[in-house]
Each structure stands twice: as C-alpha cells, then as structure tokens.
Amino acid sequence: MEFLELPPARLAAGTVRLPGSKSLSNRYLLLAALAHGETRIRGLLEADDVERMLEALTALGIVWRREESGDLLVRGSGGAFPARQAELFLGNAGTAFRPLTAALALSGGHYRLSGVPRMHERPIGDLVDALRQIGADIRYLGEEGFPPLEIRPAALRHVGRVTVRGEASSQFLTALLMALPLTGAATTVKVAGELISKPYIDITLSLMARFGVAVARQGWQAFEVPAAAGYRSPGEVSIEGDASAASYFLAAGAVGGGPVRVLGAGRDSIQGDVRFAEALAAMGARIEMGADWIEARAPLHGGLKAVTLDGNAIPDAAMTLAVVALFAEGTTRLDNIASWRVKETDRIAAMSTELRKLGATVEEGSDWIAVTPGPSLAPGAAIDTYDDHRMAMSFSLACLGGVALRINDPKCVNKTFPEYFQEFARLVAPVIAIDGPAASGKGTVAARVAQALGFHYLDSGALYRLVALAALRAGTALDDEAGLARLASTLPAAFAGDRALLDGADVTEAIRSEECSVAASRVAALPAVRAALLGRQRAWQKPSGLVAEGRDMGSVVFLWAPLKIYLTASVEARAERRYKQLIEKGMSANMATLLQDLRERDARDSARAVAPLQRNADAELLDTTAMTVEEAVAWVVDKARQRMPQIMARS
Ligand code: DC
User: Fold this and answer.
1) 465 CB under 6 A from ligand 1?
2) CA of 516 to the centre of ligand 1 (A)
3) pTM of the complete model beyond 0.85
4) Does 450 sit in the ligand 1 pocket, CB within 6 Å?
5) Rounded Cα–Cα distance for residues 543 and 428 (Å)
6) First to last CA, the chain
C-alpha cells in the first residue's frame, strides 16, 4: 500500500488559500442543473466528490463546461433532468448520492444509483421513507434501507406534508428540501426526532434562496417549501473556501506556534465549521478573524487545555479536535457525535484505534469519544486512514509533536482536497527564496543565512551546471531538449557539504568553468529541463527549513515560500566584487571588461523567454551596494524571524 512519511516537526506558520467548499460545490451544482438559465460557478472545488457529481449530471443530460479560468458554466434544465433513464455511480460522495436520490425520485424517470461498497453500508432509509410519502417509487437493490437504489417513474401525490427523521444525517433533510421545488406544490417538511448538524441546513436554505426559492422555517421542526415555478439561476455564484479543510491548518497554528492564516472563509462564512475556531479558542489558542480569513496561534502562555464539547454542529471539524487533544493537557471529550459512525468509515472506532497508536488513552461510547494524551507521542506510528480523507488530514497534525509518522493511503485526501499534503508541508517546512542578478553575492548570502538559521541550502544554479557538465561529458547536444530533460531527470548528482558530486566524483571546480557556465545558461533556458528538475528541487524542502537560491525559486519552485528576497547591487559594485575575487584567486582581471560582461549578462538574463530574471512583486528588495556580506546576512535573518515566527523558537 502507498504511504507518506511525515518527518518530525514542531512549528507551523504561513498562509493557505482554501480549496472550494465541498458542501457548497455539490449543492450549487445540483441547483444550477435544475434551474432555469445558465449559472457561472466560481471557485468550484476540484476533487473526487465533485467529479462524481459532474459525471452524474452529464449522464442526466445536463450540459456544463469548464472554462480556462476554472469557472464552470452549467446550463440548467429548468426542471426535471433531460435524461429519463440513467445508471449513476457516485463513489462515496454522500453530498451527491442523497440529493440526487431525492431529485431523481421526483423527476419521473427510471434510474439506478450505486456507489463504492462503503456507500452501500451508509443508511438512506430515512430519505427513502420520506420520498415514498409523496408517492416516489424507490426500491432497494441490496439490503433494505441502504444503496444501491432503483427509482421508477411514479405518479406523485401532492400531500402538502412530509416527515423526515433528522437524527441520522442532516443530508436527508437537505436532499428533500432541494428536490421539493421540482413538484411545484407547496409542501411542509416536518422533522421527526432531533435534527443533527443544523448549520448544514442553513447552508441549504441560503443556497436555495439564491436560486429563488425561499423556504420559511419554524425552529428546526418544520420547513415550508413554497409552491414555485422551480429554481432560477442568479447568473453567477462564488464558492467560499472549505471551512472543514480550514480546521487542519488552524489546528496546526494552535499546536505549532503559528500564526497560520486561512484565506477563503471567515466571519462572513455561511459554513458552520468556521465555528471550529471557537473550539480552538476554548482550548487556549489565539484566534483572529476577518470577513473571509481566520488566523490561529498557540496560547501566549502555557499549552493547550482539554475541553468537553458538543460536536453535533461541527461533526467534520470535530475530528480535528480529537487529534488536537494529543497536544492538550487533560482529557478532551467530544459528545453527541453519533453521526461519525455512518460517515466514510466508523469514525469513532477509527479515531480510537489510531489515536491509541500514538500513545493516547481513548474511551468511546455510541456517540462520544474521550482522548487523554500519553506522557509523550509514540514515534513512528503507521496511521491507517480507512479510505477517509478526514482521517488522513487530521492525523497529519500529529507530526507536530516532533515525531515521524506514516500516513497510509494518503491519496484518500483526493475526495475533497488533492493538494492537502503539499499545503501542509508548506506550513511546517519554511522556505526562503533568494534571487538576484549575476555577481550580486546572492549565493554567499544565501549560504550564510542558511547556516545562521540552521536551514538546508539549495544552490539551484549548481543543479543546472551539473546537467550542463553531464551533457558535455555525454556528448548530448545543447539543443536536444528531450535528451537533456532525460539527463536531468536521472542525473546522478549529489551535494556533500559545499562540494558538488557527479557520479560520486567531486566536480565542484569543473562546474564553474567558463564552458560549463555557458552550457548551463543554455540548458537552463529549456522548459523541459526546468520541469525535469522541479521535483528534485522541491524535495529539498525539509521541516528544518530551506534557503533556496536561484532564478525561479520564489516564482515557480517554491511559489509558496513565506519569504522571498531579491538581492541586488549596482553593476559597478558587482563588477568590483568580482574583480576582487579574481585578483584574490591570483587571476588576471580587467574592470572595464567585467563591467561590460555584467551589463550584457543582465540584459540577457532579463530578456530570456524562459524564467527571466525579474523581481517578483512579493519579493523583498535588498540592495547590497553599500552593505557588507555580514550586514546583508543579518538583514535577511532579521526578516526571516519577523516573517516566519516558527523559526524564533529554535534560535
Ligand atoms: O547561479 P548560477 O550562475 O550558478 O546558475 C547557472 C545557470 O543556471 C545560469 O545561467 C542561471 C541558470 N539558473 C536558472 O536558470 N535557474 C535557477 N534556478 C538557477 C540558475
């Protein structure tokens, strides 16, 4: 089985732009499909659960297309689906399965819906019972009360009133509410038993209202769906960042010092899971919020404290708290979370088993879990994820206890957040990107900054020089892009301290030759070579930090670097520095020629089509014309401490 090794970490800081909310994405897609008119959806989540919904809509005859900007355009059917017959496979996407079941049951066609084996273990009887009250013809193809389902055309009855149970999943009520406008008749939905996960119903009502159907609600017991002519597209909708996904990053900030800021969801969010931040605050974390962002930091004094919390309103984000409990003093207890048992996996059982691997004492009941951390986290645990994205994401936090950790089947995060682990790595492994013109001294400064901070140092120019040397030795033509890219992707190169090795032999001096410099500049201009080195460069990102020096370190390779420096000096100062260097080495040098060379090189570097020399808008400008190397290093180290508070703690 595939797994991911997370190295030990202690500190987390940085900013994350959240992917689109899953709950909003699949609701908007269904509403847009049923509505009159075309809808432009901005910020749609790109992940498995949304793909399942899009595939289903295609099978149901809905026309949609993705624009280059990422916007999705959906042409609504203005009522029931055009396809009167279809077989739908919906994976493990509950947000697709439940609402589609309801919409299709009221559409008058013949459909079959199925999913992965786990989907067939997740109850749907409460929804089917409710739909049958209106006359829907739904049959269980497997076990009574569970998918797969068959839906047949039926004469609907306008009974005016439907009852649905609310204790197992709020998605049954959501599904019913979203489908009822298809009947055209006014219907009151009564909720039997206690309704769980209430904030999700607020999301549903708010989105339906955007599509022209205003549901009146009396408490959480009755919902009046008006007699309406169906949904009307508002033309364009924007999807907020996923507030459940935000919980992992905010927790990382609370555990790993912070500040960690998430962009895309905040005070104005319609997602209940933004209230996860309040739970963190109750544990002692420092939280700040703006309209569409939230920031979390560790407590000012002491560590996090355990809490007892009713997790009913935030069932998904509450899983994150169960792992944060490993870092809190005392016993953290989450109550009223029975729904965990019927999610992607039995989440109470899965949580208990995996938390114990980390040395925690865990107690569980039918609808609660209590977690007490052990004296220290057990190192080297192999965490099973049960095909549950939230198990994988929440357990990644454990590495912040300074222990290495293995996450089995990490790709299960594709369900809602394919880029999760890259984003997480960004927060726990700080990067400083340094670029600048030739002879600016950026290499010297970068290496010394790395030393001062205890970071790794990547001289990316040396990698291009190594490719060039390998090409010269192998006789590969310098315009053979594919051949050079192959060479770059299998380059037997390594670094040992400040020595560069090729095939195990020391080539530190060889790659600095004039011939090699010219060749390096040529191979570096080939996009396929740059692409081939990308993964190798990114692998340098380590929890202990990295200073990456070179052309596109801040603009491509470590685009997410929290600190980017553009280090420069006047061309005269640079020529003078080079002059001194050469003279010191006992070589001959001429100031006028050096000046001329540098001017030409600057012009070439800036005019290059591929990865030209330029200062990124988000890079700090450091002009070292009147500075010593020591002053420049101190300046960068100071900036790093301001920008990346996580490195304060270790120096
Ligand atoms: O920094 P340097 O002189 O060692 O770089 C060698 C060559 O590679 C030079 O032509 C610039 C180029 N280079 C690049 O294109 N991208 C990088 N990240 C680093 C260097």
Assistant:
1) yes
2) 11
3) no
4) no
5) 6
6) 39
- Please check the confidence at residue 355 and state whether its pLDDT lies above 50: yes
Q: Is the CB of 440 under 6 A from ligand 1?
A: no
The residue whose C-alpha atom lies closest to atom 19 belonging to ligand 1 is 461
Supply the pLDDT for residue 647.
54
As a whole number of angstroms, the distance between CA 633 and CA 508 comes to: 24
Instruction: Please say if 367 is a catalytic residue.
Output: no
- Is the separation of the CB atoms in 238 and 32 below 8 Å? no
Q: Read off φ and ψ for residue 547, nearest 5 degrees.
A: -105, 115
CA-proximal residue: ligand 1, atom 3 (nearest): 461
Position 650 confidence tier, pLDDT thresholds 50, 70, 90: very low
Q: Which domains does the chain have, with CATH numbers?
A: 3-18+240-427 (3.65.10.10), 22-238 (3.65.10.10), 429-455+544-651 (3.40.50.300), 458-543 (3.40.50.300)
Read off the tokens for 245: 């996904």
Q: Is 461 in the pocket of ligand 1 (CB under 6 A)?
A: yes
- pLDDT tens, residue by residue, 539-574: 888 777 899 999 999 888 887 687 899 999 999 999
Residues contacting 462, CB < 8 A, separation 6+? 495, 500, 511
Torsion sign across C-alpha atoms 202, 266, 70, 427: negative
Q: From the CA of 459, how far away is ligand 1's center (Å)?
A: 9
Summarised one tens digit per residue, pLDDT across range 203-229 is 999 999 999 999 999 999 999 999 988
AA letter at 406: R
Whether 442 is in the pocket of ligand 1, judged by its Cβ within 6 Å, is no
Rounded to whole angstroms, the Cα distance separating 361 from 73 reads 50
CB 378 within 8 A of CB 402: no
Secondary structure element (H or E) that encloses residue 565, with its range: strand 563-568
